[in-house]
Amino acid sequence: MKLLNYLAIGKTYIIAEMSGNHGGSLENAMEIVRAAKVAGADCIKIQTYTADTITIDCHSDLFLVKTGLWEKQYLYDLYQKAYTPWEWQGEIKKEAERLGLDFLSTPFDFTAVDFLEDLSIEFYKIASFELVDIPLIKKVASTGKPIIMSCGMASPEEIQESIDTVYSQNNKNLVLLKCCSSYPADYPSMNLSTIPDMKQKFQLPVGLSDHSMGSLASVAAVGMGASVIEKHFCISRAEKTVDSEFSMEKEEFSNLVRDIRNVEAAIGIPSYAPTESEQQSYQHRRSLFAVKDIKKGEPFTPVNIRSIRPGCGLHTRHYEMLIDGGYATMDIPFGTPLSMENSQQYPTKGIPNESYN
Prior knowledge:
CATH class of the largest domain: Alpha Beta
CATH superfamily of the largest domain: Aldolase class I
Strand order of the largest sheet: 3-2-1-8-7-6-5-4
Oligomer: single chain
Largest sheet: 8 strands, parallel
CATH architecture of the largest domain: Alpha-Beta Barrel
Strand content: 5-15%
Helix content: 25-40%
Number of strands: 12
Radius of gyration: 32 Å
């Protein structure tokens, strides 16, 4: 599992969320796993539930989605379409591991945790909507395995309660994800500045579960200290599935990975020293030059010396001393850098030099 290693070295861990984008086809699910690998993901993520383990088959108004992408669908019907059959999950995990991808799942009840334990899963995800399911979090935490927990809609108090639940099971391997639980999320709803605030408040690594379109929010989040990025992933948005509308295609995801790695490189470390690539630019700094022919003994003035590029003459800090009584110790042709050898400086004016006529 790359997650803990990446957290240790400060590298962003990038998760491709399959969710229901397989469209009910194991062949599509396997294609998504292989495409995620090509796109540069570190991990393929699925969800472990059935319609009966996540809700009940009730068609009262309470169970009807009233707004958004899944408007007018009943929860049970929606999850019947979206779930990943449990008999596929071992095969998906095996294919991911063959390709060198981590395999991650979100359980939604105790039976899912037991099932995933039988699959020897190495770590878990808690979804935003389940952050308030304290018994489920306790069950997952009791495995002792790392947990990534989304915090969409959660108050600080709710987040702290969930953290305390994990810690109560002597499990300290926890990562929080900032999340806007709307699908898709618009930019004004993202509030990425919450990421550094969460890091400070909860003293834990924090990432982003990104339901917005495009890569802008994820790349910005990495610049603000996000340790983990999770994005929904599909083969093509033209193939309509329950999550395709806010999912990334392979080329888009590949660009996301590239941009995140470039941001990591650009962030670097605190440093005031010139980089290797800057060394050659030193010559283009400003320094003091003769801008007219200057005879030996001739005083320096603002007319015959100036601070110009390139940077191979005396430092500009000497300028005022030179024009305040300094003089040439030898003939200095136009375009010659001033140096300690060809110039003399005095703190006051008026000291004559017999060699200058």
